[in-house]
Amino acid sequence: MIAIYICAGIAVYAAIRVIIERNTMRKLPFLNVVSFAVTGIIALLLPHPITIAAAAAYFVGSTLESNAIASTWAGGIRKP
Amino acid sequence: MLDEPLRILIAAIICWLNFMTIDLIFKLPHSGGVSGATAIAQEVEKGGGNLNGGYMMGNIVSSPDASAGTLLASCGVYCAGLPGGLFAALLVYVGNRICYDPGYAGTTGCITATFIVYGAVQSGWFAASDFIAGMVIAILTIQGLSSVHASRLIARLWKVRCRIIPEDKP
Amino acid sequence: MGRGYQETMNDVVMVASVLLILVGMTAAIFNRDPFDKLISLSVLIAGVFPFIVERGFLDVAIATALIAPLSTIFTLMVCRRVQV
């Protein structure tokens, strides 16, 4: 069962890429990879029907959050 | 069954093909669905990438698209078989509604992925966990390596798609 | 096999999650830009999740997964109001 090791490794790699990247908007795709990997880890840790709901809730929540960050950033707080 | 690394690699290719095909069919690289996607696309373009590729990467970040659908379908089939995958499709549909997403790329991707993963598991060649790891690898190649190269690859595939499915653009 | 194998597997995942928490925490402390801080907090909460799920607290996981992004969204709404 090396699937969970792959997800854990990709999560750590993407987290490091998130903090190394200097441009705020370009951090978001790496954060998306972290969310994918942690969703996979959640599902692989505990194979139970309710885990699907937990994984989906986490993933949709993190998508909403990234979307909110991106659209607030674009919405004009940083107008020169 | 084959060796596990090889199974995961083949599952990654299958997941990549599934979500890229459905996203291209649903015109994700055409424009940003929500304002966040447009912001990401512009920053990708400033970094040297392609704008259409940036739109697709922004849409993947901002709303549940076929990549999210494929991942949750694999998780669903792993946890609870075919009903699990369809339950995941329902949750992806609810997620799409919450994010005000006008398209159905996520739900469609989830349903097709459910049947693909369930069929692969039933055939005895794969285990459902291979598809979970495979999908994470597939999204790593698009979002996690280099936004410049990934956006240019998406732009090339988008041009091919536009030639295959001609539409009357206003 | 059995319980021993399960614990070995979870050790790697535990180390990875702790790394996510530490990386997210250090980045949140040392980043200047508030948007970067929010993104680093997302990495931190991503590292906390496997611990919640591993113990079987699936209802806590669902609740946290819905509450944490909402708190980020409310933070952003407050910032927008203060600036504008």
**Annotation field: number of helices of chain A:** 3
**SSE succession of chain B:** HHHHHHH
Integer count of domains of chain A: 1
Largest beta-sheet characterization of chain B: none
Low-confidence stretches of chain B: none
Structural class of chain B: mainly alpha
Count of individual beta strands of chain A: 0
Rounded to an integer in angstroms, the radius of gyration calculated over CA atoms of chain B is 16 Å
Broad shape of chain A: flat
Oligomer: heterotrimer
Largest interface: A-B, 48 and 52 residues
What does the largest sheet of chain A look like? none
Radius of gyration of chain A: 15 Å
- The percent range for helix content of chain B is over 70%
Estimate what percentage of residues of chain B fall within beta strands.
under 5%
Describe this structure in words.
The complex is a heterotrimer of chains A (80), B (170) and C (84). Chain A has one domain. Helix content of chain A is 86%, strand content 0%. Chain A contains three helices and no strands. The radius of gyration of chain A is 15 Å and the shape is flat. Chain A starts with a helix and ends with a helix. Chain B has helices at residues 4-25, 35-46, 51-62, 66-98, 105-123, 128-144, 147-164. Chain B has one domain (4-164). Chain B is globular. The model of chain B has no long low-confidence stretch (mean pLDDT 88). Chain C has 84 residues and is mainly alpha-helical. Chain C has one domain (3-83). Helices cover 89% and strands 0% of the residues of chain C. Chain C is built from three helices and no strands. Chain C has helices spanning 3-30, 34-54, 58-83. The longest helix of chain C has 28 residues, at 3-30. Chain C starts with a helix and ends with a helix. The model of chain C is unreliable at 1-6 (pLDDT under 50). The chains are: A mainly alpha (80), B mainly alpha (170), C mainly alpha (84). The A-C interface holds A 1, 4-5, 8-9, 11-12, 15-16, 18-19, 24, 27-28, 31, 34-35, 38, 41-42, 45-46, 48, 50-51, 53-54, 57-58, 61-62, 64-66, 68-69, 72-73, 75-77 and C 9-10, 12-13, 16-17, 19-20, 23-24, 26-27, 31, 33, 35-36, 38-40, 42-43, 46-47, 49-50, 53-54, 56, 58-59, 61-62, 65-66, 68-70, 72-73, 76, 79-80, 83-84.
